[in-house]
Specification:
It is a single chain. With about 375 residues, the chain is α+β, with helices and mostly antiparallel strands. It has three domains: about 180 residues, Lysozyme, CATH 1.10.530.10; about 80 residues, Membrane-bound Lytic Murein Transglycosylase D, Chain A; about 50 residues, Membrane-bound Lytic Murein Transglycosylase D, Chain A (Roll), CATH 3.10.350. It has 14 helices and ten strands. A four-stranded antiparallel sheet has the order 3-6-7-8. The chain has a two-stranded antiparallel ribbon with strand order 1-2. Helix 3 packs across helix 7. The longest helix is centred in the first third of the chain and has 20 residues. The termini are far apart.
Length: about 375
């Protein structure tokens, strides 16, 4: 037996070295998906550290049946508007419906869109992408998970595996760090110039749900208000109004907030419009009582929402279709056409509404 001892020792040492080099499931997951997480951060403003931590936690580092069979890394359920593949599993209730995807990258992309376009998560984009603590607690506050310890678990994963480094990393560096295991994300126009894209994404997401942009104060004498000079001359819009009050613009369409005692008829008279015009501009068939603080558009709304607002996910059963269209400055008829909706459509929680043609084509 003694003569075999050196051989056994050598085998043990080799096994120990091999075991030491072997990556954990968590390390392999991070290496594989860090490039996608960083790419999504530049596209939507969701921190890469949060995406990776949620993926690790929700999918068990990619080992859950939902992740392996359905490519669902984030436990996102079907909701009413989901038209893709489905799997059923027990969660808060027995036999709940979960989304499935053709690829892992589709799951990461849908997760980013889910946070970006679902109304209850909009406040998260006021936080910096480097503030993973606020994002973790914000996700719990918004109702992403019922587990009271959810924020602490995300934060621990981020700190244990130093995931915050990816919040400051370029896509190329993240893919390179992942090595042979990394999945290289598809490059789109939003990820070609990383630093500029990231600043633009964060700015767009932190302001996309702000209700109005101050377009100017209209004095008693007419004042010409122009769109930014960088626009082609043919696309510039000029507003000529004489009422002394604040004018706002949403999606390039001027509007005012109504005050006590006003009506659509009185506003039409003030702005030299026909009553039928102002009613039509605001997607109404007839004049109705005008409550104080209501948005009243003074020109026709656009056929599409502003760039960066491709779609909207209905957040609750009480949302009104017309109010959604008013909120984004788009015509109801256009949104119906893009989404193939009937004239009597009533929004349901989870419905996904395309607000731009590019999003409609993907449905």
């Amino acid at each position: 037996m003694r003569r075999y001892l050196p051989i056994l020792v050598l085998l043990f040492v080799c096994a120990a070295i091999f075991a030491g080099d072997k990556k954990s499931a968590q390390d392999e997951y991070i290496a594989r998906y860090s490039g996608i997480a960083v790419s999504e951060m530049y596209r939507t403003g969701v921190p890469a550290s949060i995406t990776l931590a949620q993926g690790l936690l929700e999918s068990g580092a990619g080992l859950s049946s939902l992740a392996k069979e359905g490519h669902n890394h984030f436990g996102i359920k079907c909701h009413n508007g989901w038209k893709g593949g489905k799997m059923y599993a027990d969660d808060d209730k027995k036999g709940e419906c979960f989304r499935t995807y053709a690829t892992d990258e589709e799951s990461f992309r849908d997760h980013s869109d889910f946070l970006r376009y679902y109304d209850r998560y909009k406040f998260l984009f006021d936080f910096e992408t480097t503030d993973y603590t606020s994002w973790a607690y914000g996700l719990k506050k918004a109702g992403y998970a019922t587990d009271p310890g959810y924020p602490a678990k995300l934060i621990k994963l981020i700190e244990d595996y130093k995931l915050s480094a990816y919040d400051r990393m370029s896509i190329a560096d993240a893919v390179a760090e992942g090595g042979e295991d990394a999945i290289e994300p598809a490059v789109d126009s939003g990820s070609k110039k990383h630093s500029k894209a990231r600043r633009r994404s964060r700015k767009a997401n932190s302001t996309q749900y702000v209700d109005e942009e101050l377009a100017g104060t209209i004095p008693e004498s007419p004042l010409k208000i122009e769109e930014p000079k960088s626009l082609p001359q043919g696309e510039m819009e000029q507003y000529h109004f004489s009422l002394s009050r604040q004018l706002y613009s949403r999606n390039g369409v001027p509007f005012v907030y109504s005050v006590e005692g006003e009506s659509y008829a009185s506003l039409a008279e003030c702005y030299n419009l026909f009553l039928s015009e102002i009613v039509r501009y605001n997607d109404l068939d007839f004049e109705r009582k005008l409550l104080p603080g209501t948005i009243v558009y003074l020109q026709p709304k656009k056929k599409e929402a502003a760039k960066g607002l491709e779609k909207y996910i209905v957040g609750g059963p009480d949302e009104d279709f017309r109010e959604i269209c008013q909120r984004f400055g788009v015509k109801m008829s256009s949104v119906r056409k893009m989404n193939g909706l009937p004239a009597n459509y009533v929004p349901r929680e989870g419905d996904e509404l395309a607000l731009r043609k590019s999003a409609a084509r993907k449905k």
